[in-house]
From TrEMBL:
Homotrimer. It is an enzyme of class 5 (isomerase). Keywords: Acetylation, Fatty acid metabolism, Isomerase, Lipid metabolism, Mitochondrion, Transit peptide. PANTHER family: ENOYL-COA DELTA ISOMERASE 1, MITOCHONDRIAL, ENOYL-COA HYDRATASE-RELATED. Pfam families: ECH_1 (PF00378). It catalyses: (3Z)-decenoyl-CoA = (2E)-decenoyl-CoA; a (3E)-enoyl-CoA = a 4-saturated (2E)-enoyl-CoA; (3Z)-dodecenoyl-CoA = (2E)-dodecenoyl-CoA; (3Z)-octenoyl-CoA = (2E)-octenoyl-CoA. Pathway: Lipid metabolism; fatty acid beta-oxidation. GO terms for cellular component: mitochondrial matrix. Coiled coil: none annotated. This is Enoyl-CoA delta isomerase 1, mitochondrial. One of its GO terms (biological process) is fatty acid beta-oxidation.
């Protein structure tokens, strides 16, 4: 019976939940995925390693010093995820970091500072695009969070189906935007509400709270806290449990849960871009970002 279920589970719905939802999907070249038992691709900021025999792809962020989500990172992630989404050998994706102590520092502040309005628009569209791909992926997504995970880093984790955080009090996680003088957009907020519930999200976002592993576990922001050297192996073990569920049933259930949030973002996408460009280009906001960057540098020296 278990074998039968596993076989049935192999018959996956094609495309992300976005295309399963009736929206047109896009086709990308599958150049690097052949029939070997392992397929790897490394670009400058992201390494994708798909093990065909297990069906697990590990997507490793490798953009030192802090895996900030600049244009290169966003583009490489989008391409990598598109390829995995179309690959029938891949059933689950683990997001993790190759950079010690940091999962991701979130959006690259330099992409939001001193740039043209056109740049801000393109940048924000790319951020939206990555979130849509992560949040609507038909694959099982597990975040193996092996370092600090503020703001956009936390958003990537929130987009996954399951979150495992390394037990190190320095590895804080949360949507800290308010502390920078900026505002977490509604789809960041929705992702948080969908994970921890309204009341906790309300406080969390207004204060820009960064949670320790113990507190993140307590509020349900992460599902498991494990010793640092066990984060990836635990993610792989957990993935095997998710694999016991037939893909079609899991995918439809996931879509049912996430579609309203995805639809809300799609319906408000252009307004959200306009809001971002208007907000981020304000002198007062640019000043806040400048001061924040200076503070980060001072902390070092
Ligand atoms: C009406 C409503 C409209 C809505 C409008 C929307 C508004 C905008 C919404 C924006 C949304 C998303 C926000 C983000 O994701 S913003 C990014 C937030 N990130 C942070 O606050 C993290 C800041 N970084 C840290 O806390 C630490 O760096 C760390 C991650 C804990 C790591 O600590 P560390 O000691 O190991 O490293 P550190 O010395 O601090 O940093 C090394 C160098 O990296 C630079 N750096 C750090 N973070 C970023 C970043 N996010 N972007 C760019 N650069 C970053 C840091 O300055 C150091 O640089 P250098 O070596 O000194 O040159």
């Amino acid at each position: 019976m278990a074998t039968l279920l596993r076989k049935a589970a192999r018959v996956s719905l094609s495309g992300s939940l976005l295309s399963a939802g009736g929206r047109p999907g896009r086709l990308y070249a599958l150049s690097y995925f052949g029939s070997n038992s392992r397929n790897s691709s490394t670009s400058s900021k992201v390494k994708v390693d798909l093990d065909n025999s297990s069906g697990i792809a590990v997507v490793k962020f490798q953009g030192p010093p802090v895996n900030s989500m600049g244009m290169d990172f966003l583009t490489e992630m989008a391409i990598g995820l598109d390829k995995l989404e179309l690959d029938k050998n891949c059933r689950g994706i683990i997001l993790t970091s190759a950079v010690p102590k940091v999962f991701s520092a979130g959006l690259d502040i330099m992409d939001m500072y001193g740039k043209t309005l056109e740049h801000y628009e393109l940048f924000w569209r790319s951020v939206q695009d990555l979130w849509l791909k992560l949040y609507s992926s038909s694959k099982i997504m597990i975040a193996a969070i092996n370092g600090a995970s503020p703001a956009g880093g936390c958003l990537m984790a929130l987009s996954c189906d399951y979150r495992i955080l390394a037990d190190n009090p320095r590895y804080k996680i949360g949507l800290n935007e308010a502390q920078l003088g900026i505002v977490a957009p509604f789809w960041f907020k929705d992702s948080m509400v969908n994970t921890v519930g309204y009341r906790i999200a309300e406080e969390s976002i207004q204060f820009g709270v960064m949670y320790s592993p113990a507190d993140a576990l307590k509020i349900g922001l992460v599902d498991q806290v494990v010793p640092e050297d066990k984060v990836l192996s635990t993610a792989k073990e957990k993935m095997e449990k998710w694999f016991d569920i037939p893909d079609h049933a899991r995918q439809i259930s996931k879509s049912m849960m996430r579609k309203p949030t995805i639809d809300r973002m799609l319906a408000n996408r252009e307004t959200d871009i306009k809001n971002f460009v208007g907000f981020i280009s304000k002198d007062s906001i640019q000043k806040s970002l400048e001061m924040y960057m200076a503070m980060l540098k001072m902390k070092k020296g």
